[in-house]
Amino acid sequence: MRIFTVAAAAVMVGAISWVLLPQTSPHVDPIVSGSIHRDAPQRFSVTSNAGQSACMAERGEPVSRRSREFNAPADCNAVWPGLASAKTWTENEDGTVILADASGEAVLMIVAGDGPGYEAIEPAEADIALRTAD
Questions:
Q1: What highest taxon heads this organism's lineage (predicted)?
Q2: String of DSSP letters for 65-99
Q3: Same-domain pairing of 30 and 96
Q4: Distance (Å, rounded) from C-alpha 77 to C-alpha 55?
Q5: pLDDT, tens digit, for every residue of 28-52?
Q6: Backbone angles phi, psi at 15, to 5 degrees
Q7: Co-location of 31 and 54 in the same domain
Q8: How far apart are alpha carbons 96 and 21 in whole angstroms?
């Protein structure tokens, strides 16, 4: 009986100390973390068939399950007014992609084209193509 009491007390002390003592989180291994592949940003040549102007834009890091960062420099406004204000690339279930500004307003709606890239479908007057530059 005495052995049972001592064993039960030891189990209780162990359980209480396990609950009350601070738990340490696992350390991040820089070798393993550094070897995890990150997608490189995808670059696009953005061209306006109407005005014959072009610029380079970049689809970057994921910001949510369906959205990525989007960066178009100021010279992209010559291709389409407001394109440089687009900050997110959001892929919809129907295959369309919305390029939206920081407030969430759509700047362009694009869809996969016949070749390796995208074509604008909204606004209707946007005759713009995004071709992969990588």
A1: Bacteria
A2: SSEEEEE--GGGGGTSTTGGGEEEEEE-TTSEEEE
A3: no
A4: 9
A5: 666 665 555 556 569 999 999 876 8
A6: -65, -45
A7: no
A8: 52
| Strand residues in the chain grouped as ranges (E) | 42-48, 53-62, 67-71, 86-91, 96-101, 106-112, 117-122, 128-132
Residues 6+ apart with CB under 8 A from 125: none
CA distance 53 to 46: 8
Nearest to 80 by CA among 118, 51, 121: 51
According to DSSP, the β-strands at 128-132 and 42-48 are antiparallel
Long-range contacts made by residues 114-120, C-beta under 8 angstroms, separation at least 24?
117/44, 118/44, 120/80
Say which CATH number the domain at 82 has. Answer: 2.40.128
Structural domains counted in the chain: 2
pLDDT given at position 116? 79
The 3-state DSSP class for residue 16 equals: helix
φ and ψ of 72, to 5 deg? -125, 125
